[in-house]
Specification:
The protein has helices spanning 7-33, 50-61, 65-78, 84-105, 110-135. The model has no long low-confidence stretch (mean pLDDT 95). By secondary structure, it is mainly alpha-helical.
Length: 139
């Protein structure tokens, strides 16, 4: 297997981040244009208007656990640990992030969002376990 395939899930996650940035910009513009908030409301996170707050919060989520995702992908590539198992785990993690974002940016039902988040976190933990086993020579 070509070890560079691990970069495709990373690229897919980066696409998600750009999509969320787009949603955030559209929502912020709509809030300001409607007169519900002034542009100054965006100077500090504490004053983020409700109309764009979920998009802003989702964007922050993309820089929390996903940072560990990108690190483990790079570590797997650097140590020749890319294989079918970590690749599938990586794609499933990215899928969980898309689902999490979709829920967060639409219905924002915490129960469903939490399920997507916990699923992604488990997949991420399995990727790190795979890396550890790979480094130990067990896989």
């Amino acid at each position: 297997m070509n070890p560079t395939v691990i970069f495709w899930p990373m690229i897919a996650h980066a696409v998600l981040v750009f999509i969320v940035y787009g949603v955030l910009m559209v929502r912020r513009r709509a809030v300001v244009t409607s007169g519900a908030a002034r542009a100054q409301a965006y100077k500090q996170r504490a004053t983020e208007p409700e109309g764009s707050m979920t998009a802003s919060n989702n964007l922050m989520n993309q820089y929390e656990a996903p940072v560990l995702f990108h690190v483990v992908c790079l570590a797997l590539h650097a140590t020749a640990g890319v294989g079918y198992v970590p690749l599938v785990l990586a794609w499933l993690f990215v899928l969980s992030r898309y689902i999490h974002s979709w829920i967060h940016l639409t219905t924002n039902k915490l129960k469903h969002r939490n399920y997507a988040f916990r699923t992604g976190l488990l997949l991420l933990a399995l990727m790190w376990l795979w890396l550890a086993l790979h480094l130990a020579g067990a896989v």
